[in-house]
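INFO worker-7 received task bundle
INFO bundle size: 2
INFO processing item 0
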Amino acid sequence: MNLVNPYRFAAGGGGDPDFASVVLLVHMNGTNGGTTFTDSSSSVKTLTARGNVQTSTAQSMFNGSSGLFDGSGDAVTAADSADFTLDGDFTIEGFFRPTTTSGARDVFSKRQAAAWVLLYLSSGTVYVYMSSNNASWNIASGVNLGAVSTGTWYYFAIKRSGSTITAHLGTSGSTSTVSVATSTATFDSSQVLSMGGNFTNGAEWFNGHLCEFRITNGVARDVSTVPTSSFPDS
């Protein structure tokens, strides 16, 4: 796969022409051992560092650091917001680098019982789950995106365009894509959005590094190629 920058540039300058629709953008930049996480979106959310989560300069994609999650109680959370109601087109994307692939781990989630969208790492395989009813994974139930290995950065993206939800998983050398046809809106969970585990239920903690987590609500982006630069702040 050829790496290309997927961003369209606005006339008269650079940036992201869909930035007004970005409702969460977490680069996870910072000093080694830092505990401050910032939302750089157009509608800034307060983020809370849970457990021992911290920024680390040991691994990064673009900016010299990333979020380090130790697999035991670590998460970065944002309070529930109407911005996270996914009843139309949307795009959720980011990068993760697992330190371990054993067990059951949420890369991100916003859960009650079975709710919203979940990127799930189980015994070395990545799955997508989505629900409209908080009772079952009736939109996507364990849709297999492929296997991952420790020590490798992966780009993930889940988007809805009209009545089709498409998920992508990629590295610099390969991508995999799956699609699910549905016109059903995702369940409007009232729980926190959790990066790095299932904070609501205190389980399935991610062990590894995360960065460049972005939610664009109302826009189905072109996510068919792996980004080669940090997501724009404007």
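INFO item 0 finished
INFO processing item 1
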Amino acid sequence: MGRPRKNPSGAGTQATFKKISALPGFFDVNTQTDPYWDLLLKRFSKIARVYGFSRFESPLLEDARFLKTVYSNSGLGRGALMEFGQDGQALALRPSQLPGILRNFQQQKLFEPGGIFKWHYSGFTARKDLAENASLDYEFGCEILGSFNHLNEAQGIASAWEFFSGLELEGLVLEINNLGSLECQESYQKTLYEALQPKKYELCDNCGDALSTRPLAIFACENLGCQSMFAECPTILDFLDQDSHKDFTHVLEALDEMHIAYQLNPFYAGNNLSEKTNFAVKCKLGEKTLSLAEGGHHGSLAKAAFGKAFGAFGFFGSFKTLKQVLEANSEPPVFGPSLSEVCLVPLGELAAKRSLRLFRDLTAQKIMVYDHFGLSGVKNQLKVAQDQKVPIALIMGQKEAMDEMVILRDVKSGMQEIISYDKIVEEVKKRLGK
């Protein structure tokens, strides 16, 4: 009698996945192993906080009817929503965080008491691409809501520019324009239509279609033949009302005051329902020019969605795209300086346990601590402290742990001294100037 044969179907056994990867078009974000994600997320979060933006994140799922209303009116969406049904309610994955921001502001009635609200965000978004495949992105942005003015707008633009300019990308440029009110645009688009209609068949198919729907959209075309015809057209700046012209002048003067270089691009038209100040941050990738972020007013979008306009101005971009640009343009960045002020270096099991207490005592005094309890040896642990640019290392071996002592080492100079445990926290605060 031979051996029993294995069940080829695997019935009755638990499935295992020896080789499993993320779904096609999907990706993970791991800041510990990927220096690009580490750089982007840390830098964006830091600059957003410096400029006074608080963290916001919308739910992954929204009412599909609401999202359809937003995107059918704005033209922001590319591709289709990823919809789901649950108990008769139509749901969809967020294709952007902007609708959720506007919904939350409306839902909480934050426009009623007045004041300014500044929110920054980053996170996964999803939609179907034009081929009906699931497409994942990682969006980031900042939004100013409420009763703000041209100075707040300029500061919002400055936050975007400071973030991108620090990445040292090739051919980085800030383009800015003003579309005026929707009434200004209506008058301008009528003139634009009359100027280009006789040349309609010289335009590409996309521009020909846009001419009869939203003539402003033709300016996004990259066809050189179309662009040569745009250059002969009047610009929107000649059609601005007095208030729009005045506000735009104030914004540009504020950017000049902050020494932020910009290029006036009267043919940058944003998306549907864009009005007043609009801007884009662009860079070079080989022979191509890529838009890394777009910004402008979103009050008319709010009105289309909720029937009530409120002040909303901000920008958004894709970390997925930005990461690809960095990978193509530069060497992988070195992991940036740690925020840690002290590095713990325990040697042995007893010292590692005592270092847990030291970690607690230091963090209770709001001292940032880099801890490593892997027991990998003093040389390796001090190298970590140097690589992380931590100024102080606290070394504790078996003898120090038993004697309630700690070796304080200046990582840069290598000088060190032995200090009793009950005085070490105060000595660290003194060295750090706290």
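INFO item 1 finished
INFO post-check item 1: The chain is about 35% helix and 20% strand.
INFO post-check item 1: The two ends are 80 Å apart (CA to CA).
INFO worker-7 idle
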